[in-house]
Design brief:
The chain is an alpha/beta fold and 978 residues long. The longest helix is centred in the middle third of the chain and has 22 residues. Helix 7 crosses helix 8 and helix 12 runs antiparallel to helix 17. The strands form six sheets. The chain has a seven-stranded antiparallel sheet, sandwiched between helices. A five-stranded antiparallel sheet has the order 5-6-10-8-9. Strands 1-2-4-3 form a four-stranded mixed sheet. The model has no long low-confidence stretch (mean pLDDT 94). It is built from 40 helices and 26 strands.
Length: 978
Amino acid sequence: MPLLEPKPGALGPRVRKAPAPDRIPGLLAKGTPRRLREELTELLGPEKVLSKLSDLVRYASDASPYRFLPQVVVVAEDVDDVSAVLSYARGKGREVVFRAAGTSLNGQAQGEDILVDVRRHWVGTEVLDGGARVRCGPGTTVVRANAALAPHGRVLGPDPASAVACTLGGVVANNASGMTAGTTRNSYRTLSSLTFVLPSGTIVDTGAPDADTALARAEPRLCSGLLALKAEIEADAELTARIRAKHALKNTNGYRLDAFLDGTTPAEILRGLMVGSQGTFGFISEVVFDTLPLDRAVCAGLLFFPSLTAAAAAVPQFTGAGARAVELMDGNTLRASVSVPGVPADWAELPDGTAALLVEFRAPDTVALEAYERAAATVLDGLETVAPVASADNAFTRDAGRINGYWKARKAFVTAVGGTRPPGTTLITEDFAVPPDRLAEACAELLDLQARHGFDTAVAGHAAHGNLHFLLAFDAGDPADVERYAAFMDAFCKLTVERFDGSLKAEHATGRNIAPFLELEWGPRATELMWRTKELLDPEGVLAPRIVLDRDPQAHLRGLKTIPAVERIADPCIECGFCEPTCPSGDLTTTPRQRIVLRREMMRQAPGSPVEARLLEAYGYEAVDTCAGDSTCALACPVGIDTGALMREFRHARHSAGEERLAALAARNFRAVEAAARLALGAAGRIGERIGDRALERLTGLARRAVRPDLVPEWLPEIPAAAARRLPRTVRADAAAVYYPACVNRIFGNPAGEPGPSLPEAVVAVSARAGRPVWIPDDVAGTCCATIWHSKGYRRGNELVANRIVEAAWEWTNGGRLPLVVDASSCTLGLARDVVPYLTGGNRELHAALTVVDSLVWAADELLPRLEVLRRVDSAVVHPTCSMRHLGDEEKLTAVAAACAEEVVVPVDAGCCAFAGDRGMLHPELTASATAREAAEVTARPFDAHLSANRTCEIGMERATGRAYVSALLALERATRP
């Protein structure tokens, strides 16, 4: 064990209640049973089998209210792996469940035996026919696919609120639709073809010209059975009419029996059946969608009404006027949305009965949009809206910022409302549809039903399609509260079916939640056909048992998860998974959601239990050490949960008193530390020239093993030479700004082989060239933005450095009269925001007077308009840093790059590089994993320039791509040099 390895107990829960009834028993503390682990490892290889307890726990939870612990997790890389797992399961009598994003709301991505991760290695998009079609891997998110289609003016039909996180395999498997898809733009209607693996292992590509011939050869019994079921259904006129009527509404409850009516061949029938099958018929390995026009002319309005029923009554008028989307939000939803950045604060004061409609019109051009606007105005004139708060203007707008704000509030429905639920309660998201012309009546009945059962729920939905969602919160550890929920569900399902002949699941799919009520909605005849279809496709019952079909009337009450209180910053988490696509460690160790899931399981346990001990052993590396700390999870989370901040707190908790003292000593003497770092770089460079980079890597590797990997950096060949000891000479007189070269740019020089000038020289030169000269204070050496201490959780050192830099900056800028230009985006963020909580009261006042400007903003706003570009390279690729995302400065990077290159490319898969100061040297595997997709995109073609705005991020991207990245300010200086 390394000398300074922290004790796992330092991360143990401080306060907790009695052990939870759904805690994982100690018998499972060792993880996957040995025999199962060994057999799958022999079959697939050790890197594809996750068997530690921490692996099983982090995959046990998803966005649903259920929790089931798998016995093993398999990370499948290709269809051969999937076929091998299915063959193994058939031979051993085991069960298999597929999981991608884990955003499903009804437990359909959870299993109790073999769980197969089909997200990590299944990402990919190929635009076909000029954008008319698109081929995607099942692990591709909706947002990622639409980003590839946008340049072609096309878009996918399905548009679920979870588009940032949900993957297309799950979208198809659940027939998820969203705001505008309805029954005409969903997966069932817009799929061109599918490739999938049947439980038998047979691979079917419905788009192949010989699809039916190949299927008949491989699966003759299946083909004949499908055609027999088709004939049986078509011979029953009453059943046929019933199936058509049920799917005239949005409906994802049960299987798509209309596939037997719409398909003429076995392959066509299977294509339809796979949509909405929820992983019970096979594994979808590839999807090809027919795309739709991306109508770019948009107007929208948020209209307030005195009651939910009044708002619902107005819906048909807007749909009749041609609205693409009409979204309903009740008062609870609107008030909860104030936690979403950008939502007006006065929504918190909305009266209880208030409701709103978000109405959007889309058109291919402004002429068509104007016609819609006239129609919308006519409808609006005839309605009685209310304006209970100042921000409620009840007007339509074309302003993209306001429209995006409206949609941000609407899409945050589940997470925002879930974040305000009582502590310790579990969240249930219900989803049903009624005939649109009966929506107002359904709203009134729903409100009455909720009141009778003691629920104060939030309601929202796709009102244009008669589709409503509502949320229930209850204590899953309290039998009486579970019984209250059960009674409500019985009454709600009967009301929906018997009063409205509605759909019990309009777009979230049956899952475990509605399986016991399937026959109530569909009747015995159709339900029996669904069972027979399942038995025909999966005769051995290998795939996802108890999902969709379950004869247990209490199945929806089994596996409900408790939500124990954890650290306050994480308590609002409903485990939705929106944070996961942005997390740089997601493919290496854990995601923000999984870090919280693991924490909650510790809280469920009795103190000192074997399960808690195992989880704590793993948590240090898997959660704390490999968190980049970039906090982009907070940007992705609709309610801003910052798991990065929580991990920094845990880093602080693990520090010994001696470590904290040493960090504070380094803070007090940072001038010497900075000089020593330059000397060390110079010495390492000279040593490397003599003995080579590999020898240096071995030497630092020995030190890391002896001391602690999280303290001793690994030598990387991409680490540049030391920066010059002296900064450029400047004068204070007539300076337009104070220039603060960040310590990282005072320590690290340019990449190897990259000619001068240095970054400080370039900033000084290009600023003077634009007539906006900058001044570098003489005493910047030994100062720092405090990000080093902040990211590592060294609290006292952070306080010392933060207060020192603010006091110095106030003096440099003459009390804030001059802007402070910072040449590293992470340092800009640190100085502008991160230092504030650590300042004294007096220094907070000084900080409030400062104007901290990133060098990219300085260049784009102050320099570019005054510069003449004399030369451009042909192409440049840029790496937006996570700090730019926090600051909202990403477009400034592309603006500066566009001045320097004819073509500027922002990789679709650009994300946090996870180098995170020195974390990429402490854990190089983290940066390798975080940058893999972006690097593949960058290296797929040549570029003349590779630009960013943070030196350590540039080092990380050079390591990932083998191409030297530099600051965009260096490129700008060259482009404008006389």
